[in-house]
Write a structure and sequence with these properties.
Chain lengths: 304, 88
């Protein structure tokens, strides 16, 4: 076998091995998207009930809660970026990180300092590589987040929010979250939303059935609100994490699908090249044999 | 509601799933201020629950108990929703 042909065959073998891996990853992600979507769907009743409850309580409680009161002159804002733990998902993590950068420059224009909270190894390594300070980071659960993890993240940001930003170094006045919204299997988009201070505007949206009834509160409207708002933040972070997880799987499936398709194309063109090389080799051997026979024949003809 | 006795429509939901949903004749739970039983026709109420048991007596009289970890209970127009962080 000629050297050329051997090289082509070796490359084909390597591409085929890679294709097997990408194909397997594509199938795994495809099955996980469905599961992730089901988890998003399973968490919606809770989120809806909670939103309803917050709207209802906020309508009847005149108290200014620290979580709903914007600071008079904000000093520092936090950005919570939700990215992936693993790569091979195309531009998924990058899109979320870029969206975060855009938001950060917007906030800087308003004269705010930025403190960053990161979820997912990709965002963490991006920040570490650029030597940027990180206020808090969580990794290891991006593809199947649990409510406990969302609670951990929520507690950290709420704690920082309740600390006074003017006097304490880790205190913040605003919290923004950057996550990837799962619109459909084909469309996911990174977006940034302000999470705190809360804008309780849902009451206008959720009131088509009429006004909320006059609730009796047990123990009191203020204490109910105190207990309710942190749960609401947790649920929103949890929902953002679940949507990001679904988006991550969808992005990975798409990236792996195009990798598999590319491997197919590559194998096809390598096969053509290998066939041409083999044919060239055969042609050369034939002409060598014919040429050799000719030379022998003319040599023996000359000697007689 | 004159022919059949009024029932509560109950939803017990946690962040990961809808735990129980359907018609019930009674719900009892423990709020910060003490045990609470809800029957159809209860006044609108919003309560903070403590860790403990929630029991739902379904239409057919069978009672189901859930252990919950904190949560909220809201009652309005015979609609009871119980939100909890987790159930066992």
């Amino acid at each position: 076998m000629g050297a050329q042909l051997r090289v082509y065959r070796r490359r084909m073998r390597s591409v085929k091995a890679t294709k097997k891996i990408t194909k397997a990853m594509e199938l795994i992600s495809a099955s996980r998207i469905v599961k992730a979507q089901q988890r998003v769907a399973a968490s919606t009743p809770y989120a809806n009930e909670l939103t309803r409850a917050v709207s209802a309580v906020a309508t009847y409680s005149s108290a200014d809660h620290p979580l709903t009161t914007p600071s008079a002159n904000p000093k520092r804002a936090a950005i919570l970026i939700i990215s992936a733990d693993r790569g091979m998902a195309g531009a998924y993590s990058n899109n979320a990180i870029k969206e975060g950068e855009q938001l950060a420059s917007l906030l800087r224009e308003r004269g705010l300092e930025i403190s960053s909270y990161l979820v997912g190894r990709k965002a963490v390594s991006y920040y570490k590589f650029r030597n940027r300070p990180v206020a808090g980071s969580w990794t290891g659960f991006s593809d199947s987040p649990t409510y406990e993890k969302a609670k951990e993240v929520a507690n950290a940001v709420i704690g920082a929010f309740l600390a006074d930003a003017q006097t304490e170094a880790h205190g913040i006045d605003e919290i923004h979250i950057v996550y990837t919204e799962f619109k459909s299997m084909l469309t996911q988009s990174a977006l940034a939303k302000r999470m705190l201070p809360l804008e309780v505007v849902e009451s206008e949206v959720a009131a088509p059935t009429g006004l909320f009834p006059m609730y009796e509160f047990e123990p009191s409207a203020e204490r109910v609100l105190n207990a309710l708002l942190p749960r609401y933040i947790e649920a929103r972070i949890f929902n953002a994490m679940l949507q990001s997880a679904a988006s991550e799987h969808a992005a990975r499936r798409r990236a792996m699908k195009s990798a598999t398709d590319n491997a197919d194309d590559l194998i096809k063109s390598l096969t053509r090249l290998a066939n041409a090389a083999r044919q060239a080799e055969i042609t050369q051997e034939i002409s060598e044999i014919v040429g050799g026979a000719d030379a022998l024949a003319s040599a023996s003809a000359g000697s007689e | 509601m004159s022919e059949s006795p009024a029932l509560l429509s109950v939803e017990l939901v946690s962040p990961s799933q809808r735990v129980w949903s359907g018609k019930a004749s009674m719900v009892s739970a423990r709020t910060i201020e003490g045990d609470l039983g809800i029957l159809p026709g209860h006044a609108p109420l919003f309560g903070v629950l403590v860790d403990g048991k929630v029991s739902i007596t379904a239409e057919d009289g069978t009672a189901t108990e859930f252990s919950i970890h904190g949560g909220f209970l809201s009652v309005s127009n015979d609609r009871v929703s119980i939100l909890t962080e987790s159930t066992d």
